[in-house]
Structures are given as C-alpha cells and as structure tokens.
C-alpha cells in the first residue's frame, strides 16, 4: 500500500509535546506557555501541543481551546502545530479536532478513546470515522497516536489499513509511542508514504533510512535544536555525531519520571522555579532527584541556549 505524504510532512521534522506551565493556583500559565512555544519554534521544532507530556489529559476542553487560540494570536504559525485532539468522549474529540482544523493546524494527533479496554477495531474505526465525518473538512489531516502502555487501546496495522483505504487524504500518519521497534519498522515497511513518527529521537538512526517522518518526542522539549540538526545533517558522519548526542540525553531523562524531569530541566535553564509545577496526581521532582539529573546532564555538556525569552516572562 502506497500513500502520498502531505507536503507538511515531506521533510523529516521534530515536534515537541510542549510541557504546560501552571500558576501557583494550578491554572494554565499562558504567557509562559507562549514564550516556551516561541523558543521551541526558534530552535527548529514544531509544536505537538496537548500531547502526553503536555499533561493534556489533565487539561479541560476549554483550557485546550483557549491555549491554542492564545498561541496562534501570539503570531506563531499554526502550520507548525499538531495539537492532540483525541478524547474519551466523542463530542470532545470532534470539538477539539474541528477547532484545530479551522485554526489551520498542520494536523490533529488523535489518541483513541482510552477508558474502555478490549474494544474492537470496528469500534475504533467508527470513532475515527465519526470524527472525520463530523469535522467534514478537506483540510483535516489526522495522525493516529499509538501508546498502548498508557491507553490500553492499541492502534493495529489492520485498523491503519482500513482508515487509509477509507480516508486516504485525511488519515496521513501515526505517532508510535509503543517503544517497540519491531512495530515501528513494520509500520514503515507496510505503509510507505505514511508519516510514521517514532516517539524517541534515539530511534532516528534506524528509522530515517526506512522513511520515518521525523519524531514527536518528549525530550524535544529540551533538545529541539540538536534533534533538528540530526534531521538536517548534510553527511552521514554529521548525522552519527548528532545521533550520539541526542541519544545520551534521552537515556538520562527517560530514566526519571518524564514530565516532572522535563519541567525541572526547563526551570533550571530558564532560571524560573515556577516551571516545576505539575497538576495532581503527578508530583514534582524533589531537590535530590533534580540535582542528580542536572549533574548527569552537565557531565554530557548539555545546555538549552537562548532561554532569555523565558527568563523575561519570569521577571
């Protein structure tokens, strides 16, 4: 099966599931969020707003609507954005997906409905089909989100094939967060032209030669420039150097609770402890944990350049 990849994904790209800052009262901190989005885009990353590491499922529908609007109103091009729009409730998924599409986003990254377990491919096909039909826009581009260790609801290859056949111009890609390289490589082999995004930059060395569309990675929040440099490497030697750099940072961070770790790193380099907040039931890293992680990163010569824009918001 061959699929025509949309121009938005013609060149491999990195997208960051943007971590979400909160105020002391645990409201969404829009100014900090917008400033961080600007920094990420300036470092060469696209924005997978409302992904897993954005604490998306701890945000209300109204918060996600408002935050997307605020990012766009701040002058950031929606063509750089792949908002997460999947939800357990079909009306919520329709509303989020319609909003992203009408805003001009490059696509919508859609979790399956994740409360009921053991659902059939027929049920999942109906869910995605109902969203697509309800949005009813030729501009809609859906990327499926496979993260069965969180959802308990896998996106099977059979389901992908059915959706591509039914909606070849609409269902254009998948983020594979399973951590199963055999699954990622099989997707790349079975669906040439489909925009397959591994969830770790550590897999790019194997995935890019097979046609991967880049990556949508948690640690793109902290090393967007390095991952973009890997994707844009002019020579094999240059690519190998960047592969080593990004993989070692990824390994250090993924050994920790990912969301609190990312926020701790951003807080350190932005010189802004407000970034450490997470919404319950998550808890922030303690000083010993964050100190040990930062020591590891320092030993790797890690830095986050040009964070002055975030520091200015903190001031």
From TrEMBL:
Q: Identify the stretch annotated as signal peptide in this record.
A: none
What's the Enzyme Commission number for this chain?
4.3.3.7
**Does the keyword field hold Nucleotidyltransferase?**
no
What are the UniProt keywords, alphabetically?
Answer: Lyase
Residues forming the catalytic site: 145 (proton donor/acceptor), 175 (schiff-base intermediate with substrate)
Q: Name one Pfam family in it.
A: DHDPS
Instruction: Say if the entry is tagged with keyword Secreted.
Output: no
Q: Which InterPro entries match?
A: Aldolase_TIM (IPR013785), DapA-like (IPR002220)
The enzyme class is lyase
Annotated pyruvate binding lies at 216
Q: Which SMART domains match?
A: DHDPS
Name the family the entry cites: Belongs to the DapA family.
Q: Entry's PANTHER family?
A: BLR3884 PROTEIN (PTHR12128:SF67), DIHYDRODIPICOLINATE SYNTHASE (PTHR12128)
Q: Under what name is this protein listed?
A: 4-hydroxy-tetrahydrodipicolinate synthase
Taxonomy, top ranks, is:
Bacteria, Pseudomonadati, Pseudomonadota, Betaproteobacteria, Burkholderiales
Q: Which gene does this sequence derive from?
A: dapA_2
């Amino acid at each position: 099966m061959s699929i025509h990849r949309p121009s938005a994904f013609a060149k491999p790209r990195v997208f960051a599931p943007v971590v979400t800052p909160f105020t002391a009262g645990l409201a969404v901190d829009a100014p900090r969020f917008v400033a961080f989005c600007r920094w990420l885009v300036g470092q060469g990353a696209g924005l997978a707003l409302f992904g897993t590491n954005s604490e998306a499922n701890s945000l209300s529908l109204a918060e996600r609507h408002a935050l997307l609007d605020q990012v766009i109103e701040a002058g950031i091009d929606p063509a750089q954005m792949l908002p997460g729009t999947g939800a357990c409730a079909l009306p919520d998924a329709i509303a989020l997906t319609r909003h992203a599409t009408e805003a001009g986003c490059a696509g919508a990254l859609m979790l399956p409905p994740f409360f009921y377990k053991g659902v059939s491919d027929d049920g999942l096909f109906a869910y995605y089909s109902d969203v697509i039909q309800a949005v009813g826009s030729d501009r809609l581009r859906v990327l499926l989100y496979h993260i069965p260790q969180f959802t308990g609801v896998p996106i099977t290859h059979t389901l992908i094939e059915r959706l591509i056949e039914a909606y070849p111009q609409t269902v254009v890609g998948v983020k594979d967060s399973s951590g199963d390289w055999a699954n990622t490589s099989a997707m790349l082999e079975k669906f040439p032209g489909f925009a397959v995004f591994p969830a770790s930059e550590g897999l790019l060395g194997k995935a890019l030669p097979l046609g991967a569309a880049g990556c949508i990675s948690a640690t793109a929040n902290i090393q967007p420039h390095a991952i973009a440099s890997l994707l844009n490497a002019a020579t094999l030697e240059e690519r190998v150097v960047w592969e080593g750099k990004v993989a070692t940072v990824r390994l250090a961070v993924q050994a920790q609770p990912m969301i609190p770790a990312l926020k701790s790193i951003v807080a350190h380099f932005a010189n802004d402890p407000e970034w450490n907040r997470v919404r319950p039931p998550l808890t922030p890293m303690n000083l010993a944990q964050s100190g040990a992680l930062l020591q590891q990163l320092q030993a790797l010569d890690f830095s986050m350049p040009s964070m002055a824009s975030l520091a200015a918001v903190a001031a």
